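Quick one, probably user error.
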């Protein structure tokens, strides 16, 4: 499936006029970048590798406090949907370095608080069947409520409130899957079925030697989502970070079938 991406952003950046941006679709297995263009008005741009070698980040040093950005791309998503419930999980001692770090608790995903719950609720299942059950439980238990969470919201808050946006769904899935002894990481993506249109996030789980997308919001399938970046949680893959405060002036995210 081919998707078109069109991003426009305007911010006022206070203090150091620098921004770290993570918005470009990644050169990643299962997707081909047919074309892409980015313009950051007047900025000096430096590119660095993304977390776990997925995608790139952009250091943009601005000529003044105004950040004006336009990004467009066409991405051909070639990966297929996989029924993860039939996949097996690797024994911990066989995990490669790219997966082992995603077993550990992180700032927003305190997975070490959930082993007892996971054992009681999902202990009768193994591997991909356990991950699928966790995904389905999160989708059933949570309500998608814009502005229900903020930058300080952790999975402990979300587990209690049972509401949030895509970041909170991903944190819940990652925490519970890690507590089950299966590596899970946060992935930022573009998808045409995200409502309201915005940057989106899904989980990726390590099963049978590869990463597989899991979207507990139900807004996306792996054959229609373009990968941007990955990390331990939302802290690692924010679409924009600045040394000081930044004020939103205007922003639009449009992702449509080509």
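Nope, works fine. Designed sequence:
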């Amino acid at each position: 499936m081919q998707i078109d991406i069109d991003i426009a952003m305007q911010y006022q950046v206070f203090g150091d006029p620098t921004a770290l941006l993570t918005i470009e679709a990644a050169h990643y297995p299962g997707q081909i970048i047919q074309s892409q263009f980015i313009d950051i008005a007047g900025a000096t741009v430096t590119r660095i590798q993304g977390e776990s070698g997925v995608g790139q980040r952009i250091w943009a040093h601005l000529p003044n406090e105004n950040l004006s950005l336009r990004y467009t791309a066409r991405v051909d998503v070639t990966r297929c949907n996989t029924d993860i419930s039939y996949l097996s999980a690797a024994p911990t001692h066989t995990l490669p370095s790219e997966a082992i770090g995603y077993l550990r608790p992180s700032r927003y995903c305190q997975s070490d608080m959930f082993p007892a719950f996971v054992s009681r609720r999902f202990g009768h299942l193994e591997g991909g069947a356990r991950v699928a059950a966790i995904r389905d439980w999160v989708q059933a238990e949570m309500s998608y409520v814009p502005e229900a969470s903020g930058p300080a919201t952790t999975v402990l808050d979300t587990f209690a409130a049972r509401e949030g946006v895509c970041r909170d769904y991903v944190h819940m899935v990652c925490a519970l899957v890690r507590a089950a002894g299966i590596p899970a990481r946060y992935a930022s993506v573009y998808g045409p079925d995200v409502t309201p249109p915005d940057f989106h996030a899904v989980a990726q789980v390590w099963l049978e030697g590869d990463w597989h997308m899991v979207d507990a919001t139900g807004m996306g399938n792996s054959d229609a989502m373009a990968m941007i970046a990955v990390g331990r949680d939302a802290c690692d893959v924010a679409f924009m970070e600045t040394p000081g405060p930044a004020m939103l002036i205007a922003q639009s995210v449009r992702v449509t079938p080509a």
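The first strand starts at residue 2 and ends at 13.
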